[in-house]
């Protein structure tokens, strides 16, 4: 294999693989290309995509956030609990968002203030969030008849398009704007690529790292509100399944767009690819464990392609 071919495959190989997956299911999975199913795919990946956006912000500053799934579950419990006990919907939404943001800020302060590696700091916060979620609920989900206006946030449709998909697209566009068109976004990228050079260049590196982790927490809170609205319930394990899939989406995106760099557009494409894979396997009647096996393969392959970036983030102090 010559150098040009290797370079081409390095840049576009994963994207071509994703296209191949789409074409495979389009041909062999019945009803895959139906409008109903494609809209269902967008709805299914909404939570995954929003969480992936948050993880991307943290990773952009060369920090890992391994707490976002449990933080999201905690924020879901806070939101759902307040609604369950008849508090105003506006208060429930606000507290859900603040729970996520607060956890993200706590992560940032531990990492920058106490000099604890983000891998350890966020695992600790994740454990605390998990414990609090079970303590609040006593291990039992909050369920009941919730206000229709709140439920609409997760189950409604506008012109046939799921509201969840619309929220996802709006958040993805805002995230992309922040990263590409604002000074904060550019400073976050510089911080992640070379924090010492960024510091010498006048960038507030600690603030950027706190911001990246705070945005990850905030988007976990946003996901929590939408998740509670969609399920009309709130359990302490509501978002547990999103941990690996969100990480896989971000890592997969790093192999397709701006190779080796965490980025919002890549994370969206990665989430879409995983969503298509999951949906196609279900339509073809594949056993549930096949998706887990393929997800593990995706993570290993993605990390191997972007090894230097992930290694730096995992052990950054």
UniProtKB/TrEMBL annotation:
Coiled coil: none annotated. It is found in: Cell membrane. Keywords: Cell inner membrane, Cell membrane, Membrane, Transmembrane, Transmembrane helix, Transport. GO terms for molecular function: transmembrane transporter activity. One of its GO terms (cellular component) is plasma membrane. The keyword Heme does not apply. It is a multi-pass membrane protein. The chain crosses the membrane at residues 12-29, 41-59, 66-85, 91-111, 118-137, 157-178, 210-231, 264-287, 293-315. Pfam families: BPD_transp_2. PANTHER family: ABC TRANSPORTER PERMEASE PROTEIN YPHD-RELATED, ABC TRANSPORTER PERMEASE PROTEIN YPHD-RELATED-RELATED. This is ABC transporter permease.
């Amino acid at each position: 294999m010559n150098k040009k071919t290797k370079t081409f495959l390095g840049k576009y190989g994963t994207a071509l693989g994703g296209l191949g997956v789409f074409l495979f299911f389009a041909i062999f999975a019945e009803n895959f290309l139906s409008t109903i199913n494609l809209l269902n795919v967008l709805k299914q990946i909404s939570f995954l995509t929003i969480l992936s956006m948050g993880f991307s912000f943290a990773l952009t500053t060369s920090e890992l956030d391994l707490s976002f799934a449990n933080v999201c579950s905690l924020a879901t419990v806070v939101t759902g609990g307040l609604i369950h006990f008849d508090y105003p919907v506006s208060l429930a939404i606000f507290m859900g968002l603040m729970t996520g943001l607060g956890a993200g800020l706590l992560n940032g302060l531990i990492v920058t203030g106490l000099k604890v590696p983000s891998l350890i700091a966020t695992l600790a916060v994740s454990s605390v969030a998990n414990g609090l979620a079970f303590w609040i609920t006593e291990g039992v989900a909050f369920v009941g008849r919730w206000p229709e206006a709140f439920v609409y946030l997760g189950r409604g449709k506008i012109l046939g398009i799921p509201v969840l998909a619309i929220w996802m697209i709006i958040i993805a566009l805002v995230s992309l704007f922040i990263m590409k068109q604002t000074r904060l976004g550019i400073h976050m990228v510089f911080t992640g690529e070379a924090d010492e050079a960024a510091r010498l260049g006048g960038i507030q590196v600690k603030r950027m790292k706190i911001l990246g982790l705070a945005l990850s927490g905030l988007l976990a809170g946003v996901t929590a509100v939408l998740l509670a609205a969609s399920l009309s319930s709130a359990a302490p394990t509501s978002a547990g399944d999103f941990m690996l899939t969100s990480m896989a989406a971000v890592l997969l995106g790093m192999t397709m767009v701006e190779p080796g760099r965490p980025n919002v557009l890549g994370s969206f494409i990665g989430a879409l690819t995983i969503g298509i894979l999951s949906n196609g396997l279900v339509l073809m009647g594949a056993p549930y464990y096949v998706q887990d096996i393929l997800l593990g393969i995706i993570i290993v392959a993605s990390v191997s392609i972007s090894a230097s970036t992930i290694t730096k983030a995992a052990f950054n102090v």
